[in-house]
Specification:
The protein is mainly beta. It is built from 2 helices and 40 strands.
Length: about 400
């Protein structure tokens, strides 16, 4: 009878193993032969810990290196990409932090965890937000209903229903008193009390009194604000640089900002003068000298003169990033250069921008990675994934 149970157990193990997806092999290229292979075997094969990509197979998350081998085996219930050499991972019900070798730097113990910023990370313990150091010790005890990352030594936190600002010691620089509060940008932060927005300094004093129906962070010398149903731009004194007159508006990039008038998008300069008259059904910001625009159903790209650099022809288009832009033709995504010529033909159901020389792409229902030549270098065998990071 014992022998019979042993044989049945062996058959069951092989049955489960046979269900694991195995990547297609290519001659001359080393790939992860089994997405769920034991971590010890995989780690011995690789020393490429400089950048890692987060991937999921079935319900488990792990990390692969640039060759497609597992640097950290599938084992987590949830996880984030690496930032500053650390990643947040969830095991059972708790979050902790690992390094790029998969070693726990901070053991799982938090209900939620975020990446480190300026040496501190916000975490949830006993349903309250606090901040920990890289040793895992609380620098600021859990006490907040919500919290944001530190930036320039300050962080906005929510106590009860109101937002305030603390320093890295947890001392209130600005007591909780705002219904909403944005981050500081150029020394000012947008804040709301009641229904109207204004801007405060780092002591909590109103530099620009609440008077706007909506407001955005300062970008350079200007901030977008909404008065009634119209958007305009103010300077740091609160004076209108461009009076509210647009149905929607964007930030300035290289001296131009997209703006919407009579349901059409165009581009204005910092005086509010139309440099490119409203004529597009949709538009993006200028990046790398070009802006994506939609006319009817098709997307193309214009120069700062308003002339088409790439005629409308795509079903969707994204901004240029390092000389390449993701575009969709039919149901497939590919990449074009600034002359509009396909560098990588449309062939993917989805695609990310290139990061560290790789693009995360979806082929069918699975994700893998391509290089800048469009070649699949890590086969699409993953249920989910994220860009390479470190």
């Amino acid at each position: 009878m014992r022998k019979l149970f042993f044989i049945l157990g062996v058959l069951l193990v092989f049955s489960v193993y046979g269900q694991v997806p195995v990547p297609a092999k290519k001659s001359g290229k080393s790939k992860a032969d089994n997405p769920t292979q034991a971590p010890e075997a995989m780690v011995r094969k690789t020393e490429n810990f400089d950048i890692l990509a987060l991937v999921r197979v079935f319900k488990s998350w792990g990390y692969i290196d640039r060759t497609g081998n597992y640097a950290i085996n599938l084992q987590f219930d949830n996880a984030t990409s690496f930032s500053g050499g650390l990643a947040c991972v969830k095991k059972m019900r708790d979050w902790g932090y690992i390094d790029t070798k998969g070693t726990y730097v901070i053991n799982p113990q938090f209900e939620r965890a975020e990446n480190f910023s300026e040496g501190l990370a916000r975490v949830v313990k006993f349903k309250k937000w606090g901040y920990i150091e890289k040793s895992g010790t609380f620098a600021i005890n859990p006490q907040f209903n919500d919290a944001n990352d530190f930036k320039n030594g300050l962080a906005s936190v929510k106590k009860g229903l109101s937002w305030g600002i603390i320093d890295t010691k947890g001392t209130y620089v600005v007591n909780p008193q705002f219904a909403e509060l944005g981050p500081f940008s150029n020394g000012l932060a947008r804040a709301r009390t009641g229904k109207e927005w204004g801007y405060i300094d780092k002591t909590g004093k109103w530099e620009i009194s609440p008077q706007f129906n909506d407001a955005e962070d300062f970008n350079g010398d200007f901030a977008r604000v909404k008065k009634g149903t119209q958007w305009g731009y103010i300077d740091k004194t609160g004076t209108y640089s461009i009076n509210p007159q647009f149905e929607a508006a964007g930030n300035f990039f290289n001296g131009l900002a997209r703006a919407k008038k009579m349901r059409q998008w165009g581009f204005i300069d910092k005086k509010g003068t139309w440099v490119i008259n409203p004529q597009f059904d949709d538009a993006g910001d200028f990046t790398e000298g070009l802006a994506r625009v939609r006319k009817g159903k098709d997307w193309g790209y214009i120069e700062s003169s308003g002339s088409y650099s790439i005629n409308p022809q795509f079903d969707h288009a994204e901004d240029f990033n390092d000389g390449l832009a993701r575009v969709k033709k039919g149901t497939q995504w590919g990449f074009i250069g600034k002359k509009g010529v396909y560098i990588i033909n449309p062939q993917f159901e989805n695609a990310n921008d290139f990061v560290h020389g790789f693009s995360l792409v979806r082929k069918g229902s699975k994700w893998g990675f391509i290089n800048s030549s469009g070649n699949i270098v890590i086969n699409p065998i993953y249920y989910e994934g994220d860009n390479f990071s470190k």
